[in-house]
Amino acid sequence: MEHLNREDALAIVGIDGRFPGCENLDQLWELIISGKSATVDYSRDALLEAGENPQLIDDKNYVAKGMPFADIDAFDYKFFGFNERQARYMDPQNRLMLESSWRAFEHAGYAPRQIADRCSVGVFAGKNPPHYYHENVIPHIMQDTQSTTLSQQLEVETANGCDFVGNWLAYKIGFTGPALNIQTACSTGLSAVAVACQNLLTHYCDMALVSVSGLILNQGRGYLYQENNILSSDGYCRPLDADASGALDGSGVVSLVLKRYEDAIEAGDQIHAVIAGVGINNDGLSKQDFMAPGVEGQARAIRMALAQAELKPDDIDYLELHGTGTRLGDPVELSALKLAWGEVRDRKHPCRLGSVKANIGHLNACAGLAGLVKVILAIRHHTIPPMANFRSLNPYIELDNRAFEINTAQLPWPREGNSPHRAGISSFGFGGTNVHLVVEEHLSAAASMPQQKQGIDPEILFASAASPEQIKPLIESWLPYRQAHGDANISLTSLITREHLRYRTALVLRAGETPDLNALTVSRSADETRVGWVFGGQGEMLSPEMGRQLYRRYAPFRDAVDECRMLLGDEQACLIWPLHDNDWSLHRPAVLQPALFIYQYALAQLWRAVGLMPECVLGHSIGEIAAVCVAGGLTLDSALQLVRLRGLAFESIDGEQGSMLVVFSELDSMPSLEQGLVVAAHNATDVQVVAGAQAALDAFMQRCQEAGVGTYPLNVTHAFHSPMVRKAADYLVQRAPRLRGEKLTIPVYSTLSGQRLEDATDIAYWARHLLSPTLFSEALAAATAAHHLTMAIEISPHSLVSGLVRKSQLLAIPSCSQARSEHLDFLEALASAYGNGLVPEATALFPESVSKVVLPGYPFRKHSLWINRPSNAKQTQGENRAPGAIGPTPERAGGAVTAATGLSQAAPNGLDEQEEVLELNEDDSAQLLALFVSYWETYLGLPSAVPDDDFFSYGGTSLTAIQIQEAVKRDLGVSISMSEFMGSRTPRKLNEIVCERLMGETTDE
Question: 246 and 366, same structural domain?
Fold first, then answer.
């Protein structure tokens, strides 16, 4: 099947939704496919507990049914940077839309704030009227009119009003495209889709977020049935049915992510459905009254969508009706449908009709999006679900059985040849705004889905959260998808589709093993991570397995090795880095040393490719050659020639070649050295390396044991960095070619001088480097001080240098250890780096066959935030204030000069009217500071505050700042400008400004 060859098609790439009785899309589909309704019966006791009026319950027309919506009061306010007070008085619809929007982008395979930085994302949002504001928040404001200021009222209004919902989503997530608030009553959801499509097609944005909420507050309560009203007589919505008497209000929130179709194809997005046509209009005067539906307007919207999609009615397999189950609405809708379709010809199967309102009730502003989600799920499952609650056709509706059919059981959704599934969705709002969408299946979806399943290689799973407690639930929600998606696809998805938040962990997944989540280590990512690369020396003899796993798995490593082999030529390449390890003569310095260099160079290119670049580099002994090459001080060809010649130089030495001994002692506390022994390396304050003849070293080791000094003999070929390698140094100088290099692009710290290196192309430098002690400790100290390093990554096939780095209080991350799987070691290194603030690039880590998949979204914490409606609106000021009541409490704000500070009494209008000169002593300043701390607690809603709490870190806004400014003016008679306040940010700084102002005023007097 070819892709749609139309420039006006839109792709739905991300979906999130919550519905009555359904926490996610899977649960919604189970409800729909079962043909059941989410309606529940309420017992009398439950109704009374919910606060229902007993007399109302006993009314014969009272319907004790409803559609509960879980956790309507819950919100992870800290995640989005709110303080508790702000979140408590914000419309729950706004709160749930924030969480839903975030998850919709995760579902689409995009980290919300990262994609917001890369492209223009438009926001198209709507919601039910803000009943919470009118019924719960305003009564509290009215209780405390004396302390409530205009700025407080404005702050509350913007947190609830319909004019601001899209702006909140754009502001809190970071979207910079158009942010439009769409309100067309019951058709709000599809109207928002229509406007989003228009903005995408005109390139006002590159991606679009459609987010709409339809929440009702009377959770746990029934309602009083009134004949011919919209609510049904029995608590069930029965679209098209003879017993239909209306709908039942439900609650829901839906968020969609849309892109231009061709953009989604190019990006490799998973396309859940394609919007092929949109029709939107208004009935105008062609109907009986404002609230009534209009036949001609609905028909025109349907025809408009079909025309834009370039389709005929015969092409549509399924129609998701507005379907309110009202006696007037359903017959009008079917009349409009038949008018729009005209005479239907040549249909092999009638078009099936359905309405999700039968399952979850009328979601008001969110109703159309609920229908769209149902269609998307039906397309995904290739199934047409049954119409719930349907028994017999409404006698006022006539259906042509050739054209339409209402199925009462789930049916397979077969394709006609290569044609995709196609459906229409209608949504008609009070006031006459009609919307119809034509959507179709993306036939290439199956081919573009990731094919790579479980492999044999280990993979790494990245997880982060705003609090450490959320890490484990997040990972637990992902692990069940391993078998279906494969570890590699899950690994990629965890890295590129999620924001990398403050608390992090990364764990290695091994095929066939279940990780122990109780052993998780969660790190708090550093505010700033500054990394150095430390290239290890020769150390122990190397394994012939060195580099094999990394060469096979990672292209950057493999490309770097191949580049070195090409420069060496076939003969040398087969000797120094054979493609098979059978003939790898690593006992020879002329092979081992250039092989070590190639490994380090290739490993550095791998780290570079994953984006973890260093502030500076240094190398222990021979490791400095690779460090200089990576930093640009030597060309790769020159570095290869130098290290190969260095290895040959050691093979030129005749006679005894000596050995080396690690001594765990401070230099001054070490037993005296016999003649011929030298300190070859100063690795740390209490770690030295001694080199010399074997006999002398044996005797020295015996004296160390007697003195209680620990030692460790190194398995090396020569007494490096000692006079015993003088011949090698001479050989190097005599035979070395002219070394070439550029200006160092990364600072290098020399282990010959212990200071920053300026030039590495002088062969005399490398001769001295070979003979002289390695000043690793000094070089590391200089690099750490100059670049404020917090972490060092060891570029080496072993982990010997990492232990030395840790002695300097730096975090050390070895790339490999030679103690186990090389690939496993590298993944553990990545995990450690990630946990400490570094985020790797995905391109180098995964082959092209690995793709992102859909995984469960972020597990937001459920903080209950609710202002209950006062039982008596005439309560006196401050009485029975509910948690989160708006406005300062009297003991904290009103008249606080005397009560809170104990300062000399102020006149009602402030300190500037005092007759006595005010002199502030230390006690007065401390009491003023306590007052300012109380402002932070009151106006930011903090349970407790301290003098250095940053105003903006706790969700402070300009409106909150105005309230504190007003409090300072009211209580102390001091005017603080906005720029002064914004510059102060903490109670302590504000206290300094106010005290200085007060003292200045007394001086003026």
Answer: yes
Our count of domains for the chain comes to: 4
- What is the sign of the dihedral through the CA atoms of 896, 898, 900 and 904? positive
Query: Of 517, 427, 423, which Cα lies nearest the Cα of 472?
Result: 517
* Residues paired with residue 16 on neighbouring β-strands, in sequence order: 255
Does residue 48 belong to any structural domain of this protein?
yes
Question: Where a domain ends, among 817, 837, 869?
Answer: 817
Q: Are 394 and 466 found together in one domain? A: no
Q: What does the H/E/C string look like for 829-872?
A: HHHHHHHCCCCCCCCCCCCCCCCCCCCCCCCCCCEECCCCCCCC
Determine, yes or no, domain membership for 862: no
Considering the domain architecture, whether residues 426 and 506 belong to the same structural domain is answered as: no
316 in the same domain as 170: yes
**In a shared domain, residues 487 and 423:** no
What is the three-class DSSP state of 461?
strand
For 694, list phi and psi in degrees, rounded to 5: -60, -40
Q: Which residue has the tokens 């130098």?
A: 642
Query: Domain check: are 220 and 330 in the same one?
Result: yes
Burial of 448 (0-12, 13-18, 19+ CB in 10 A): middle
Rounded CA-CA distance 360/700 in Å is: 85
Q: What are the tokens at 867?
A: 């202002």
Range of the domain at 927: 896-1004
Of 817, 836, 871, which one is at a domain's C-terminal end?
A: 817
Residue 969, Cβ density class (10 Å: 0-12 exposed, 13-18 middle, ≥19 buried) = middle
**CATH number for position 555:** 3.40.366.10
- Confidence bin at 1005 (pLDDT 50/70/90): very low
In this structure, the answer to whether residues 628 and 545 fall within a common structural domain is: yes
Q: What is the C-alpha to C-alpha distance for residues 923 and 935, in angstroms, rounded to an integer?
A: 19
φ/ψ of residue 237, rounded to 5: -95, 125
- Looking up tokens 């005109």, which residue turns up? 202
CB 601 within 8 A of CB 565: no
Measured over the CA atoms of residue 407, residue 410, residue 414 and residue 420, the dihedral's sign is positive
- Cα-flanking dihedrals φ and ψ of residue 612, to 5°? -100, 75
Q: Based on the number of CB atoms within 10 Å of its own CB, is 703 exposed (0-12), middle (13-18) or buried (19 or more)? A: middle
What digits encode the pLDDT tens for the residues 45-56?
A: 999 998 889 999
CATH number of the domain where residue 975 is located:
1.10.1200.10
pLDDT at 709 over 90: yes
pLDDT value of position 882: 31
State CA 701 to chain mean position distance.
56
pLDDT tens-digit profile of 116-160? 999 999 999 999 999 999 999 988 877 765 556 677 788 889 899
Whose CA is closest to 913, among 859, 855, 973? 973
377's tokens: 């799920």
Q: Rounded CA gap, 41 and 337, in Å?
A: 35
How far is residue 274's CA from residue 5's CA, in Å, rounded to a whole number?
12
Q: Whole-angstrom Cα distance, residue 220 to residue 222?
A: 7
The 8-class DSSP code of residue 635 comes to: -
**33 in Cβ contact with 80 (< 8 Å):** no
